# Entry
Amino acid sequence: MMETMSTFPRAKRSQPGYDIEQVEDFLEDARRAYATDARAATAIDSSTIRRTSFTMQKGGYSPAHVDAALERLEEAFARREHERGVIEHGEEAWYAKVRDRAQQALETLKRPDGERFRRVSRISRGYRVLEVDRFAAKVADYLEDGPDMTVREVRTAQFDAQFGGYDEDEVDQLLDTVVSLMLAVR
# Structure
């Protein structure tokens, strides 16, 4: 019996990994999208890749290996989006647009502690306010002064839950915007 070659290492049979078929289908769609003219918008972009998730299955693809590949793929798409933006709008206009988005994000990040994001009800769980506020201050410092911060730090930020915490979708959306901004100026 001949074993087929896997794109990624697999988790042990008893360990959860990403659904192999979903990963392969997504990668094929991404390959097709990347093969199109660099100036053309595609259905898959860097933010689509960043928000992609897969079902878990025993013995599936190793999440660490797939996640690392998705990060590289996201960065490749972001470079193309940057190039396309410069071609379409000119370099000065492209960076002006990026600065405007950064300023909007910074306005949210600079709100007072406990007021940066919408709160969920007292009987619902959201992100722990104190943790988000601390991380938001760090991101705001990065956007203002540019101290070292990596895309991975923002991409992998995690917060504990608390009743009455910050709305997770709103926080995640802002962090997604920050990652997009970081990749846009690389």
